[in-house]
Amino acid sequence: MQELTHYINGEHVKGTSGRFADVFNPATGEVQAKAPLANADEMAKAVEFAAAAQPAWAATNPQRRARVMMKMVSLLNRDMDKLAEALSREHGKTLPDAAGDVQRGLEVVEYCIGAPELLKGDYTDGAGPGIDMYSMKQPLGVSAGITPFNFPAMIPMWMFAPAIACGNAFILKPSERDPSVPLMLAELMEEAGLPKGILQVVNGDKEAVDAILDHPVIQSVGFVGSTPIAEYIYGRGCSNGKRVQCFGGAKNHMIIMPDADMDQAADALIGAGYGAAGERCMAISVAVPVGEETADKLIEKLIPRIEKLKVGPYTSGNDVDYGPVVTSAAKANIERLVQTGVDQGADLVVDGRGFSLQGYEDGFFVGPHLFDKVTPDMDIYKYEIFGPVLSCVRAATYEDALGLAMDHEMGNGTAIFTRDGDAARDFAARVNVGMIGINVPIPVPLAYHTFGGWKKSVFGDLNQHGPDAFKFYTRTKTVTSRWPSGIKEGGEFNFKPMD
Predict the structure, then answer these.
(1) Mean pLDDT within 423-443
(2) Residue 369 and residue 373: Cα distance in Å, rounded?
């Protein structure tokens, strides 16, 4: 069995804590590797190397730092297939979906090539008598990121690329469920020209997380995961004086208006609800058709599409729609919530319970489920399922549909499908959710905009990637200068009139 490592100061380093986490092949249920779980001393050593390397990196001009990002883009494209295969093997995603994971991270690295422009300060000439003022954007020092299992390539790059482009060193604590791709990314960054010690990968669990939150040298922490853990990290990190951004859970609604193209809406729901086995924070898990006729038409369109979904391992080819979920515990939690939906009176119109794949009976596969006539008091509506389960909540009016999205405690993403520009404009303006799709089911912004939810989907005041990232990973220093003016004693070089 393979024993994975940390990546510290440019080297693969074996864990010394004696504790390990099993890394599964989700398709077979077999343990394929073990990842070391760092203790506080191991984390402190990584921070020590990062702190030692960071001043020289900060002193490197932004254009040279941007060249590292430029080279990294080339390397990511070169190794795209290799990264996608490693990601699929540990996470269970299909190969096209895994390549998309890498691609969306690559796009943030591309954005960071613009660091020289994004790090420019401001200058005011003659702010007062003989006084000039200017501002500088300077790195924080050592930053850290705690990233989830569901995007082991994209989200680490969302964090470390802008942090490093700003001149910081970065400690990455990836999910212990699928840590191989983050380790590969660290190697690629150094191949791209990043000095040793600037990007460290330290595997771990809560002990490593607490070591990050309590270490006085680490100045900022980013996190993506569940809302309860986001609240914990935000509270503990802020109490220790760190800058913290935490992104939590989601319950994303898609409103389908009576005038919507029902085939387009159904196709969108299939991809957004069941892609990646529903293990996406931007997955659509609640369909909200407006009016009974709309709901009946939508369900009629959805059922045959869902029943045709191909579920299987990534090795079965690119026509697989989705693969297994990440662990047996995740599978059990999904199945438990599905049963509560049945018990609480929802209509299970596509029943994926008991799904089994020949030859992969021990894998963590979950069949697709579709619930109709779900109500807001049911557990399958209130909680994030993070699985291939779509709930249909029928709304009598547009205002009722809007209210469902607005009243839910989560506010990550939402969408509306309609041909009515007025309805779409009103929805985008009024809904209290951070990312809005208009005839777009998963409205993840591109790298030069920012990603972030509202309400209990986010803790902190700045979003991920885009301009906000360069604000989060820098501090502004403002300088006021005055130089004495006028003629000084000494040599004179001006013409003087003849006496």
Answers:
(1) 97
(2) 14
Token pair, residue 155, equals: 């989200």
- Amino acid at site 317: G
Percent of the chain with pLDDT over 90: 95
Of 432, 482, 467, the closest CA to residue 453 belongs to 432
CB 371 within 8 A of CB 349: yes
Do 270 and 222 share a structural domain? no
CATH of the domain at 27: 3.40.605.10
Tell me if residue 383 falls in helix, strand or coil. coil
Q: Residue 327 carries which DSSP code?
A: -
SS3 20: strand
Q: How far apart are CA 184 and CA 167, in angstroms?
A: 21
Number of domains in the chain: 2
More confident residue, 497 or 486: 486
Q: Is the pTM of this model over 0.90?
A: yes
**283 lies in some domain:** yes
Q: Compute the half-sphere exposure of residue 277: CA atoms within 13 Å on the CB side of its CA.
A: 30
Name the amino acid, one letter, at 35.
Answer: A
499 pLDDT more than 50: no
pLDDT given at position 489: 62
Q: Where are the beta strands (DSSP E) in 11-56?
A: 11-13, 20-25, 30-36
Phi and psi at 211, nearest 5°, equal -65, -35
Q: Is 214 found in the same domain as 151?
A: yes
* Residue 492 located in a structural domain: no
Residues 229 and 268 in one domain: no
| Burial of 191: CB neighbours in 10 Å, binned 0-12, 13-18, 19+ | middle
Boundaries of domain holding 306: 252-438
Contact 75, 192 (CB under 8 A): yes
**Per-residue pLDDT band at 1 (split at 50, 70, 90):** confident
Catalytic-labelled residue, pool 112, 166, 246, 281: 281
288 and 347 together in one domain: yes
27, 75, 112: which is closest to 188 by C-alpha?
75
Q: Is 281 a catalytic residue?
A: yes
Q: Does 498 have pLDDT greater than 50?
A: no
CATH of residue 340's domain is: 3.40.309.10
> Are 244 and 256 found together in one domain?
no
Same domain for 158 and 257: no
Phi, psi torsion values for 158, nearest 5 degrees: -60, -30
Amino acid at 247: F
Residue with tokens 């869902």: 306
DSSP per-residue codes, 162-208: HHHHTT-EEEEE--TTS-HHHHHHHHHHHHTTPPTTSEEE---SHHH
Q: Which residues pair with 454 in a beta bridge?
A: 411
Residues 309 and 166 in one domain: no
Q: Which residue type is seen at 441?
A: P
Residues 303 and 428 in one domain: yes
pLDDT tens across 228-245, in order? 999 999 999 999 999 999
pLDDT of residue 493: 59
What phi and psi values does residue 318 have, to the nearest 5 degrees?
Answer: -80, -5
